[in-house]
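In response to reviewer comment 3 from the previous cycle, which asked for concrete evidence that the modeling workflow produces usable outputs, we include below a single protein chain processed end to end. The sequence was submitted unchanged, and the resulting structure tokens are shown without manual editing.
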Amino acid sequence: MTSKAMTKPVTGWLQSPFFSWGGWPSEFVGPKADIYETDDGFYLAMDVPGMSEDSLKVRYENRVLTVSGERKQQEIEGARYHRRESFIGRFQRSFSLSPETDPDQIKAELKDGVLTIFIPKKEAAKPRQISISLG
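The workflow returned the following structure tokens.
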């Protein structure tokens, strides 16, 4: 199956002018991500429970934001696991950014197992109020 054929059933944020999808569907590549927009920019929230800032990397290059990391298996002494559903291993997710975003102002925060990345819009791309003058 070609990558183009795989993207046909995918909708939503993939059609956003600020992000494009490049790769496998998220269920194949690791932590899930929610992406939402405000007037000021975009937020990418990725579930990474049990991970520290040392085990995560956020990189920007050529309009592509890449989040990568590794979640190591946590062993509990004396425990016998009956089932493991938690994501274990390395992952990498990449997101193409629009030219309307400001990569120099990207910020990332890890809190309560969620990595939140703020990608601001350039001033020219933000909504603004236009005043009306009487003629």
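Residues 20-122 form a domain with the Immunoglobulin-like fold (CATH 2.60.40.790). We consider this sufficient to address the reviewer's concern, and the full set will be provided in the supplementary archive.
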